[in-house]
Each structure stands twice: as structure tokens, then as C-alpha cells.
Amino acid sequence: MSSKIKTPLEETVDSARRGFIQKTAAVTAAVTLAPGVILHQAQAKPADEPVSSAQRWGMLIDANKCAEGCTACVDGCNKEHNLEGHGRPETDAQWIRKVSVKNRSTGYSFTLPMMCQHCETAPCVDVCPTGASFKRVDGIVLVDKHICIGCRYCMMACPYKARSFIHEDTDDQMPYAPRGKGTVESCTLCVHRVDKDGEDAVPACAEACINDGHEAIVFGDLKNPNSRISKSLKKYGGTQIRADLGLNPGVRYWGVS
Amino acid sequence: MLLLALLLAACGGQPPEPPKAVRQFSDTQACVEPVADMRKNHMEYILHQRDETVHAGVRTRKHSFEECINCHVAPREDGSYPSAGSNDHFCSSCHSYAAVKIDCFQCHNDNPVRPSMLSAGNANYHTEVTDNLVVLEKQEEGGKL
Amino acid sequence: MKKKIHYSTIDGNSVGFYALVAILGLVVAIGLGAAYYMEHHGHWVTGMNNQIVWGMPHVFAIFLIVAASGALNVASIGSVFKKYLYKPLARLSAILAIVLLAGGLMVLVLDLGHPDRLIVAMTYYNFKSIFAWNIYLYTGFFAIVAVYIWTMMDRTVYEHSRKVGIFAFIWRLALTTGTGSIFGFLVAKQHFDAAIMAPMFVIMSFSFGLAIYLLVLLYAYRWTGRPLGDIVVNRLKNLLGVFVAAVLYFVVVKHLTSLYATEHHGVEKFILMDGGIYTFLFWVVQIGLGSILPLVILFTSLSKSRAMIILASILVIIGGMAQIYVILIGGQAYPLVMFPGMEVSSTFFDGVVGQYSPTLPEALLGFGGVAVALLAVTFAIKVLRFLPESLADNVIDPHFVTEKEAG
């Protein structure tokens, strides 16, 4: 049942490459053409505009392209958000992790990155007593650490084990990724990049994956029928992990059955 | 008697002299809002911006917490930056005097990390993440920031 | 003729009283110190981690909260169901409910990542969260039971005590339903996601609350030298036996239901057979020591001895703690089923049983909560008239005839 079909994958590779090259070109153009004045790219919203429900951000992850033993996405995420560990794997935060899966009956095995699935009806959002765990109107599930009381009920509720509790003091936080002891955190879908670049954003994990030559992660707008992710899903479908729960996650997979 | 004297000395401490910001917001205005307003209401601005940014993705720079730090947390003479809690840190200098406990720095970095993207004409500027190149370019071209 | 019930405060000036207060105070202080230690260093110094996010403090907290609503039952039986034998027992029942809830909540709050943000928990609400409902249920419980105590103690408002008592009874059922639903509403965990959790927690509260009530009653009367007759004690111990049996029934039904559904075979096998400490706690402590043995004691001639009734009550409490430990921590330890039928592994402990061993500070915080409850009830019966001067058989029962009177 795995979607090891060559054509769509190659198509996505090409399109991912194109997108990446285009983006790089656009940035370069902005620098050279208009120094001192930054031209926003067409899809990105102005900084003072709130996010809109016209978008729903998501990711399509092709497990067929995800290399065994490769941790580029994890490293990229840790670097981006400065998730320095303390050498204590039980309590250190992991926003994204590589999961190895083996089908007991067929013996088929694969590996995939697992992170917050940015559910449409997220259990973590439902159970949070203060509303600190919330979903932005554009579908990104976040923790408002200002009102998180550290009860960890969201961690109990998450079917993907996507959340980490910050067990000790932190320092050297990145300005766009504040994090501190006693609160819960998880993948933000690189919300700071999304707010800046909109549909052209490339989350840190996807960027690292591209740089490593795998291009297994595609980011995009699930509501835009012309986005790469929507077209790919429309043409070849996609798997939701724990689809039985009906949570409609924003992260979809290929090659995970 | 000695204890009492010490106590009195402690109580009669001078009002704090917070370190000077590294630059002015504009030629005519020291901070993003009038200084008297900021002294009284800075927390309101920060709180408002906090909710706007976290929940609605508004990324303007004018009342951004990061830009407060960028401007107000100045390096010492040896180039190192004071950390929150020490008296030469802008926020702590006043907050320890006023005995108002803040928990901002449990999560937020107390030192500048990225080049500032704030200037009087550019308060709506986006956050920059990967494209620091652009920022540097901008700083070179724009001269004074 | 039935004698009038007289309530009075305890003297509370004996060496024993002050020793009790001092010991309980010390345990509270140690508990608070443990909480400070855990908060200061962060939760990595506890046994809790990103796999087992709720640990020993939550076992204590949930036990105390569940027992709190159960402790009110004695009063409810008197007010709501008009069993007059229980009326003199009602005041102690109500104050015990309040202090147990306070102790449980203290443990719960002090284990938060940010106990300093209690004000946030009180001002920001997400009404879809069962936790947020519980904040209302808990604070409402304090208020209602306080009013209930007032109506029982003040003659001028005594006529309202039944109405308030009925309301308190309904509220406490809602409260325990809310506590049980903390687990019942979790779709992610195989061991939790079941509607039976709520009624099972209600019946657990009957059992745990009554066991604590019996212990407090027996020791309060023993240490103050007040008469406590067999009629009251036997009625309560028989009731405890019924409740223990009822809990056992719910446990059986829950596991049978799970065993029937193939998707739950994994977690049932884990809890019932391969779970190591969880299997041991389930069969030996919860079922053996905490259910079967108390039933044998309570429903045989063994229970003629007060010491045996005390033992049975303690066993019910230990069994109850084990039950909550198995539900709470066993349920978390069993790995999430993300890919049914597949073997899963990762650096984040996917597919493996979560490791948890409670640390000393966690247990000390838990005992601190218990001590807060006991200290508060000790103080309460010293300053207000909660305890009848006598619960002797001839005081309780109008038809009681002593051997002497019978000639």
C-alpha cells in the first residue's frame, strides 16, 4: 500500500527545488533591486495584519524520501529554536523526532519525522484549562507560554506525544522562540517564518531536509487549491496518522503504511 | 543601632539610574512613545503586543519586546552584556528598586540576539530569521539605524 | 427516649494534642520544602519526565480530591436520605470533605510548572476544558459545604440544612464525575478513554472517603475519650464493605469491557500480566490487600474488633492509592499506539514502556497534602463544635436497651 510511485515524487522533488530556487532568487532580488526598502513577496501578509482563516498551513511528508538514520530535520529544528539539551533524554525537549516503524506482518519498515500534527480539532486545545494551548485561525497550534500554568494536561491528551515540558532553566533563547522552565512547548510550524514569508515559507526542518538532499517535507497552504501541497494531496491522497480519531491533522504523510 | 542605620541606608537608596539606550528611536523622539508615557505604561504596550503577536501573528516592531531589549540592554565597557537580575541590566535596575517582580526573562532572552529592525519609519517591519543578509545590507545602505 | 445530641469542641490542651499538631505541622513544612525544591530546580529532579507527565503528587492529589467528595457522603445519607442515625455524624463529614479537598488541591497546585500563576488559572478560562470546569466545581464545593456546615450548626437556619444538603450531594456527584472525566475524556491514551471512568470515580470516592472518615472518627473518639458505640461503627463498617464491593464490581466491568475490544488487548495485557510494578500493584495491592482482604474483615466476625476495622480502613486507603497509581501512571507508561500493528522506536521513547520511579520530594509533597487535611480537621474540631459529646449506643438509638436496664 506504500505510495512508492516514481512520477509524483519526482514531480514534487522538482517542484520543491523550483520553489526553493525561486525563493532564494526572490530574496536575492529584494536585496539587489531595492536596498533599504524591502519588497514583500506576494503571498506574505504585512506585519501589522493579523493571520487569516483563508489559509490553513500544513505539511506533506514523504516517508519514502526520509532516509534511515538521517536527523537533518531534527538538527535543523534544534538549531533554529536553540533547543539545547542537558544530556537527559527523558526530560529534554524534542519538538521533532525521527520515528522508525516496522510493519509486523509484512516486515516493511520506514522512518518518518514526527512532530505536532497541528490538528484541526486538537485535543491539547480542548483540554487546556487556561486557553494557553490554542489554534491560530490559520491552523497553527501553539502554546501561549504567558498563560501556561504547566499542568501538562495537554501532554496527556496529545495522541502524537508531540509536546515537551520544559523541566529546567533555559537561557540563550532565540527571540522568535521564547521558552522557559515550567511551561509546555511543541513544534510551532516555524510560525515566525510563516508570518514573514507566507506561502513561500520553508520551516527549518524542511529547509534542513532540502539542504541534505532529501526534500521529504513540503510546507504549504491546504486551503489554496493551487498550492503544491494541495495539488499533491488531491492527486495522490495522503495519510493522516491516527485518522481514526478524526482530528484532521495539518500534517499528512506518504509511504507510512 | 548599626542595624537600624544600615536599614535606613538601604531604605533611603537613590532612585535607579537605568543604563542609557544604545540609540534613539528618531531624531525627535527618544523611545517609541514619549518617555513619560513609556515609564508609566510600558507594560501595557508590551502586554498588548504580546497577545497580538502570539495569537494573531502581528509582527510589527514598534512595541516588540525584542526591540526593547535590542535598544535598552546596552553592552558594558568590556563588550559583555548584563544579564537580567544584575543592576546594570536596564529592566532589573528599575524593577529591583520598585520591587516589582517580572517573569519575562524566564522565557525571553535578556540580551540582544539579532540586529535591530526598528527605526522610526520602519516600525511595521517584519521579523527576519534566515535573511539576516537582508538586514545587514539594509543597515549598510540605510546608515543610521 | 432518644437523648438529645450535644456537640462540643475538644479540649485540645493535652500533650498528645500538641504532639499531634507538631508532627502534622512538621510534615506540612517538609512537604512545602519539597515543593520549593522541585520548583526551584525544575521538574527534572523529580521522577516525572516527558513520558510520565503526572506522577506521585497527582496520585496523592487525585486520591484526596476523590476522597473529599466521598467523605461528604455520611452527611448526605443523613440529610438527603433521612437516615437519622447519620445526622450526628454529619458535621465531621462535611468539615472532612473541605479539608481533604484543600489538601488535594494544595498538592495539585504546588506540582504545576507555574504555581505562581494560580491567578492566571483563575482568570483565563477555556470552557471546553474539563480542568476549567473542575476549578469551578472545586471552589463551588468549598462554598456549598461551608454553607451546609453553617445550616447544620446554626439553629436559626437549621430548617434549610436539608435543601443545602441535597444541593451539596448533587454538587459532589458532579465534582467526582468531573475528576473521573479528566481521564475519561482523553482520546489519546488506551487505558483512560472510557465513559465508565466517571461513575467508577464516584464509587471510588464513596469507598475512600468513608475509609478516611471511619479512621478519623475512631481516633478522634479514642484520643478524646468520648464514647463511640457499636451501632454507629458497625453501620459505617458495613457500608464501607458495600462500597468496597461496588468498586470491585466497576473494576471488573471496566477490564472486561476492555478485554472484549481487540484494540485494548495490548494495554490490558500490560496492566494485568506484563506490567511489572503495575501488575503487582493491581493484583496484590489493589485487588488483594485493598479489596478482598477488607471485604473478608468487614463481613466476618473479624470486624468485631475495632483494631480490625481500623486495619480494613487503612487497607482500603492503600488499595485506593494503588488503584489510582495503576490507572494514572500505568496508563501513561503504556506506549501510545500511533501505528497500530507496527513496531515503533525513536529517541523520544516511542513504542517503549515509560519509566517512572517516584522520588522522595514527590512523596513528601503528597504526604504534606495529607497532613494539611489532618491538621485542618484537628484545628477545626478544637475551635468549633463538630463532634457530638457521645455517640454511645443509647444516645444514638431510641430503642437501645442496655443490659442493666433490661435487668
What would you say this structure looks like, in words?
The complex is a heterotrimer of chains A (257), B (145) and C (407). Chain A is an alpha+beta fold. Chain A is 28% helix and 16% strand. Chain A has a single domain, classed as 2-Layer Sandwich (Alpha-Beta Plaits). Chain A is built from seven helices and nine strands; from the N terminus they run H-E-H-E-E-H-E-E-H-E-E-H-H-E-H-E. A three-stranded mixed sheet of chain A has the order 8-1-9. Chain A has a two-stranded antiparallel ribbon with strand order 2-3. Chain A has a two-stranded antiparallel ribbon with strand order 4-5. Chain A is globular and about 40 Å long. Chain B is mainly α. Chain C has one domain (11-339, 347-384): Formate dehydrogenase/DMSO reductase domain (Formate dehydrogenase/DMSO reductase fold), CATH 1.20.1630. With 407 residues, chain C is an all-alpha fold. The mean pLDDT of chain C is 94. Chain C is built from 15 helices and three strands. The chains are: A alpha+beta (257), B mainly alpha (145), C mainly alpha (407). Chains in contact: A-B, A-C. Strand 2 of chain A pairs antiparallel with strand 2 (342-346) of chain C.
CATH hierarchy, class of chain A: Alpha Beta
Largest interface: A-C, 56 and 50 residues
Structural class of chain B: mainly alpha
Oligomer: heterotrimer
Beta-strand proportion of chain B: under 5%
Radius of gyration of chain A (CA) equals 18 Å
Largest sheet of chain B: none
**What is the rounded Rg of chain B?**
17 Å
Please report the distance between the alpha carbons of the first and last residues of chain B. 54 Å
Number of strands of chain A: 9
Estimated share of beta-strand residues of chain A? 15-25%
User: What is the average of the pLDDT values of chain A?
Assistant: 87
Structural class based on helices, strands and sheet pairing of chain A: alpha+beta
What's the helix count of chain B?
A: 6
Instruction: Give the tally of structural domains of chain B.
Output: 1
Q: Helix-strand pattern of chain B, N to C? A: HHHHHH
